[in-house]
Specification:
The chain has helices spanning about 10-15, 85-90, 90-110, 140-150, 235-240, 250, 270-285, and strands spanning about 5, 20-25, 30-35, 50, 60-65, 70-75, 80-85, 115-125, 125-135, 155, 160, 170, 175, 180-185, 190-195, 200-205, 210, 215-225, 230, 235, 255-260, 265-270. It has about 290 residues and is of the alpha+beta class.
């Protein structure tokens, strides 16, 4: 999705249209300056926690270009994302911006790690459980999420904003974890809804920005749905990486992400109702 580009790319975009937006936001324990040449209304500071400091730890540039690309400069703590017209029209920049901010925070923070995962709170036997589904693109994170929380959902080809039940999703794709809790990157969460054969991103603000991690499930599309095995309490970075960003070598080289909650390998190949039943059996045993 996003390819590593040479240094000349960022200079070309600077020369074509200078950034008109600069705002410091707080991402976990890092202050990130967001720089953009998109229209102001497309970048809403209200989607993030306000930064208490005028100084910044890193810079994230979201730029309008003629292709999708990503470039990381660790020496200067800067990340450049360029998006084409179609990506901007489909509002991908909001999701991409949070993904890049999480990635930057992971590389700079000693406390927080970014995870390509879906975080949600599921109520069973009147008790809430914080579940974290981790897996690369295509591992069925969103499909499995909809087994528990189908909000919003499709009916007659229309998106219906009506919640059924007490389960809720923090985010479908992007989470920060600190070993014990999982956190939103900002205040707005995103979910994927499949409509007319395509995935669309919908944004919500439910007021829930973090939850305790009670169970972690590492999704494996090679294993049949319903397969489940407990493993060591860590998340391998090889499956937690944002595979949309090709230049992820700095992330992969870091140690596995340690968590205090039980971790399970979960198969997602086939009927995901079987995967859901396997999860519910684990929850029925208590924590």
């Amino acid at each position: 999705m996003f390819k590593k580009q040479k240094d000349w790319l960022k200079h070309r975009f600077r020369a074509r249209k200078k950034p008109t937006f600069r705002e410091n936001v707080q991402i976990a324990d890092q202050t990130v300056m967001i720089v953009s040449n998109l229209d102001f209304l497309d970048i809403n500071p209200g989607d993030y926690f306000s930064a208490s400091s005028k100084e910044h730890d890193a810079v994230l540039a979201i730029l309008h270009g003629d292709c999708k690309s990503a470039m990381l400069e660790m020496a200067t703590k800067r990340m450049y994302i360029t998006l084409d017209d179609q990506a901007i029209q489909e509002r991908e920049h909001m999701c991409v911006m949070r993904m890049a901010a999480a990635y930057l925070t992971d590389l700079l923070s000693d406390k927080y790690d970014s995870v390509h995962g879906c975080g949600m709170v599921v109520c069973q036997n009147e008790r809430p459980y914080g579940l974290l589904f981790v897996g690369r693109s295509g591992s069925h994170k969103s499909h499995l999420r909809r087994q528990f929380d189908d909000y919003p959902h499709l009916a007659g080809g229309h998106v219906i904003w009506e919640r059924a039940g007490n389960n809720t999703t923090l985010d479908d794709d992007i989470m920060l974890v600190d070993g014990k809790d999982m956190h939103l990157v900002g205040t707005t969460n995103s979910v994927w809804v499949k409509k007319q054969g395509r995935n669309y991103i919908y944004y919500r603000n439910d007021g829930l920005t973090k939850a305790t991690i009670d169970q972690v499930f590492l999704l494996d599309r090679q294993k049949p749905a319903g397969y489940i095995r407990e493993t060591q309490r860590e998340i391998p970075r090889s499956i937690a990486v944002f595979d949309q960003i090709e230049d992820n070598s700095c992330y992969i080289k870091k140690e596995p992400i340690k968590v205090s909650a039980p971790v399970y390998n979960l198969g997602t190949n086939g009927d995901l109702a079987e995967a859901k039943r396997a999860i519910e059996e684990v929850l029925a045993q208590g924590i």
